[in-house]
From TrEMBL:
Keywords on record: Membrane, Transmembrane, Transmembrane helix
Protein name per UniProt: Iron transporter
GO molecular function: manganese ion transmembrane transporter activity
InterPro entries assigned: Ccc1_fam
One Gene Ontology cellular component: endomembrane system
Membrane topology value: Multi-pass membrane protein
Biological process annotations from GO: intracellular manganese ion homeostasis
Amino acid sequence: MQEIPKRSDFIHHQNSRLVSGIREIVFGSQDGMVSTLGALVGIAIGTHNQFTVVLAGLVIIAVESISMGVGSYLSHKSVREVEKRKLYEEQIEIEKYPEAEKLELIDIYIKDGWPGKVARQIVEIIAKDDNLLLKEMAYRELRIIPDHQSSPFRQSIFMFVSYVVGGVIPILPYLLLPITVAIIYSIIITFFGLFILGIVTTKFTKRIWWWSGLEMLLLAGSATVVGYLIGKFASAIV
């Protein structure tokens, strides 16, 4: 019997928690860099006070990282609870209307391209086990995979840590350099960080590395321009 060899370059052969948290990691890192940089540029240009900029940066990172982590936890938990209710309702329908559920599944298979006779045979076998029928209906009708739900707590940790790491990057120059120079270096290293983040995502995709990095840089970096313009406007008023 032929066996499929495990390949380290195939991400679906890996049971990696990092892969399951890629959304939170990218979102948290990107938002940490962009939100912090945009705010710091605006504050630095508006106040020209290095202590104020650093303090504001630390407060932003502390508050936003916790907020993003909690938000990630609650949103994932809410999704799981909604899916749990859908599965419960589907289970009730299977118990009360088994024949109707079988016909529904047969129709789904036929729409997927299975011959009618084969679809009916498959469903008759599946329907002998209510749990198996529930799993199949969950996947085919509800688009839920019951045994492969991500942990809300783990996703929140990914989000929290990623935001902190991303947020620290734009604040570093303000700890080491005069404020006028720090503004420029903060923008440069943050833009570089965004570009690298885009490149890192290609480890889990098949996209061209430079295009992914450039896309991340251009889309996320636009927030810096907004922060710069707001800072200029504020300084002009003051």
